[in-house]
Every structure is written in C-alpha cells, then in structure tokens.
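Key result, reporting period 2: structure in, sequence out.
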C-alpha cells in the first residue's frame, strides 16, 4: 500500500524480536503480579517495573508509527 502512494518504506531489522521479548517480560510481570495478589508470594512492589515496561511499549509503538 505504501508503494502505491510512493511513501518511503523504512525497515527496522530486529524490531519483531524486540517486541516478542518485551511481550515475554510483560507476561512474566503479570504472573508475578497474580502470584503476589493471590498471596502465593510475599508482597513485592512491581509498580515501577510495570511503568517502565509500559514506557518501552509506548516507545516501540511510536517507533512503529514513525516507520509507517
């Protein structure tokens, strides 16, 4: 579609692997959060970690939008 409109196509190699790994990290954080909330693990403050992962996701999404 971009070719039809003569829009520049930007290829960012390795971005898919980065997104995949970030998804795995997010899954691990969710599992830890569930374990803490379920009482299976002593209280751990993951708020800051989750906020940082959210920032990384936002950066990744922004980069994807710029590349389009």
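The corresponding designed sequence is given below.
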């Amino acid at each position: 579609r971009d070719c039809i409109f003569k829009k520049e196509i930007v290829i960012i190699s390795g971005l898919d692997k980065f997104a995949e790994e970030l998804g795995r990290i997010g899954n691990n954080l969710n599992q830890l959060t569930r374990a803490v909330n379920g009482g299976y693990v002593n209280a751990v403050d993951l708020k800051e970690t989750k906020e940082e992962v959210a920032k990384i996701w936002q950066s990744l999404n922004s980069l994807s939008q710029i590349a389009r």
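The mean pLDDT is 78. Residues 15-37 form the longest helix (23 residues). This case is discussed further under Risks and Mitigation.
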